[in-house]
Design goal:
The protein has 619 residues and is α/β, with parallel strands linked by helices. 30% of the residues lie in helices and 17% in strands. The strands form eight sheets. The protein has a six-stranded mixed β-sheet with strand order 12-9-16-27-25-26, sandwiched between helices. It has a four-stranded antiparallel β-sheet with strand order 1-2-3-4. Strands 18-17-19-20 form a four-stranded parallel β-sheet, with helices on both faces. Helix 4 crosses helix 5 and helix 8 runs parallel beside helix 16. It is globular and about 75 Å long.
Length: 619
């Protein structure tokens, strides 16, 4: 990327666009910098970053460092390469690259797409493995530190610490490094940290963390000796510019609700009384301060704004810096649409394999959760004899090459298979089904490789649902007992082959006779909610995110268990009366450090926001 060389073209004046051109190469609207305002450039950066699961805060700061958001910027390098446009995408400046050069110059959106693809490749280690930070959560801004370094160049000039002994700054933090300047911009212009209070990310770098070549004097590459860093939660910042319409978040204390997307209008319409729960009425919107203050340097204003409704119904806006992620609800008007919403959340870029289960019964879906996780595919729901339109549309979007159907033809008919084939006649269909739910669970288990199995009651869903994310994450197959809590002969023969068995539920649902001769550990409580707490207290998953579903009915959570496993997150159950959380559940949540919550189902079946806010505020 840009290395501070010669400007070839005078910057165009950026004005609001009229008459956008059509790109005949792509069939899309060409986005030329001279046709768009800084607000619109900000929106494009946010949109394209969000598509790639890159924090927009990072994308905006990289573009600032590269070009001051100037698409006309071109910088020739001494090696015959040239950096082009807002993201300073670097290519060889020759006849072979003429068309690519022209497109990078003329199409702002394409330039941003190319630059962010490069940044994403760096993050994913496609150009060489980089050090990781905590669990390398893509949503955490600090996780992108080394990817930003590599975007410019993984060379000694960007060493996070001065390590030449001849240098008078030997051992000090290199605040002149490219990535340090980018992150300072993030903190100042997106997070609005006061310049006098700014401090670099507290990595605690040592000279020994990095190495230079001692054999080749022409090798100026930076080498990593330390491959992982741990930062405290207080040092991390989750992106607040990727929220979607309908997300439930909570405000910072004393947050301001404003008439428009700017801090220029004073006083605010309203100020939050402490922290408040709000439901967003829009996705991220760019700042409009330049509409009120013509001297505002918009390329330094990286805020996002969201539309909300005040208690009196009046429309207002709140800045991204005044929001903290709390709750993300995944729901639809039907159980099938809810499963689609969950699929779109977990697999935004499609999936090679999809698992399909009937939506009016739980056993096959819950037994199939570990398989769906293993295949890294969503679990979608269908009616027994007809493929729901929403499910069919989602299969098209996912562009899957394979569908695994759970259950016999009595569970999911051949008519459904025929409808799937109309989407893609070459799609592979695999059916895993037996004579009954117990046979199907046993057949699914053969697809998994583990020395541990799970045993749950096969005629009520809560216990199997509670254990499903943990079982999926660990690749444990789920076997089911019959209505008397016993095992049929085939299931008993199969489960006896496992070294260990996790039993969920009391002896009334998984009998002592059923587990006779097994090396097992039982997790149970007086009711479904206490069993859920016992499982989540003792079978640990991640501590950043938790999901919630009603403990009274199963459809909304069937697909959600796979997403919970994908995010290394436990699943908690809420009661039906008042749809609140039990005291035992609240106590356990207060002992944990969850700061993100996902809800499976609409507010009519799951209304726990106030309980979760109390949990957060009690810490």
């Amino acid at each position: 990327m840009k290395k501070g060389l010669i400007r070839l073209v005078i910057a165009f004046l950026l004005i609001a666009g009229v008459g956008n051109g059509l790109s005949f190469a792509t069939g899309e609207m060409t986005v030329n910098a001279e046709e768009f305002s800084y607000n619109e450039i900000s929106d494009i950066l946010t949109e394209e970053a969000t598509k790639r699961e890159i924090p927009p805060e990072v994308a905006k700061a990289v573009a600032l460092k590269e070009s001051d958001w100037d698409q006309s910027a071109m910088n020739k390098e001494t090696n015959g390469r040239i950096g082009i446009g807002i993201m300073q995408v670097t290519i060889k400046d020759d006849a072979e690259n003429k068309s690519e050069k022209e497109r990078l110059q003329e199409d702002l959106r394409y330039n941003i797409q190319r630059g962010l693809d490069i940044l994403n490749d760096k993050f994913e280690g496609k150009a060489g493995k980089l050090p990781t930070i905590n669990n390398n959560d893509r949503d955490v801004i600090e996780s992108w530190y080394f990817a930003v370094l590599a975007y410019n160049s993984q060379t000694q000039v960007n060493s996070p610490i001065y390590r030449n002994k001849e240098d008078e700054k030997f051992g000090e933090r290199n605040l002149d490094a490219y990535q340090e300047k980018v992150f300072k911009s993030i903190y100042l212009y997106s997070l609005l940290v006061d310049v006098d209070e700014y401090e670099p990310i507290p990595f605690g770098f040592e000279v020994s963390d990095f190495e230079y070549s001692t054999e080749d004097t022409n090798d100026n590459k930076l080498y990593y000796e330390t491959t992982h860093y741990e930062l405290s939660e207080e040092a991390l910042h989750h992106s607040t510019q990727t929220f979607k319409e309908g997300n439930i978040v909570f405000t910072a204390e004393g947050a301001n609700f404003r008439k428009d997307r700017t801090t220029e209008i004073k006083p605010p319409l309203e100020t939050a009384d402490g922290r408040e729960v709000v439901t967003l009425q829009s996705g991220p919107l760019s700042d409009k301060s330049s509409d009120y203050n013509k001297d505002e340097e918009m390329y330094l204003n990286h805020l996002a704004w969201y539309e909300v409704k005040l208690k009196n119904g009046e429309k207002a806006y709140i800045a991204s810096t005044d929001l903290l992620p709390l709750i993300h609800r995944l729901s639809g008007s039907t159980r099938y649409e809810t499963s689609v919403a969950i699929s779109q959340e977990g697999w935004p870029n499609g999936a090679d394999t999809v698992v399909l289960a009937r939506g009016d019964a739980f056993p096959d879906a819950l037994a199939g959760t570990p398989l769906a996780y293993q295949e890294d595919g969503p679990l979608l729901l269908t009616k027994s004899s007809v493929l729901e339109k929403s499910t069919k549309d989602e299969l098209k979007r996912l562009n899957a090459n394979k569908v695994i159907i759970l259950g016999s033809e009595n569970a999911i008919s051949e008519n459904v298979v025929k409808e799937i084939k109309t989407i893609n006649k070459n799609i592979t269909i695999e059916r895993l089904g037996g004579e009954n739910r117990y046979d199907t669970a046993a057949i699914i288990s053969a697809k998994l490789s583990s020395d541990t199995a799970v045993l749950a009651y096969g005629h009520k869903f809560p216990d199997a649902l509670s254990i499903a994310p943990y079982a999926a994450k660990n690749g444990y197959p789920v076997f089911l007992t019959d209505s008397n809590g016993e095992l049929d002969n085939d299931t008993k023969a199969k489960i006896n082959s496992f070294d260990k068995v996790i039993v969920v539920g009391g002896s009334d649902v998984v009998s002592n006779n059923a587990v006779k001769g097994l090396d097992f550990k039982r997790y149970a409580g007086e009711d479904r909610y206490k069993t859920n707490v016992d499982i989540n207290r003792n079978l640990k998953m991640g501590n950043e995110r938790a999901y919630f579903a009603t403990g009274y009915n199963f459809p909304d959570a069937l697909s959600g268990a796979v997403v919970a496993a994908k995010n290394d997150a436990p699943l908690f159950l809420a009661q039906k009366p008042g749809r609140d959380l039990t005291d035992e559940t609240v106590t356990l949540l207060k002992e944990q450090s969850f700061d993100q919550f996902g809800l499976f189902g609409g507010k009519d079946v799951l209304d726990v926001e106030d309980d979760l806010l109390d949990v957060i505020l009690s810490r």
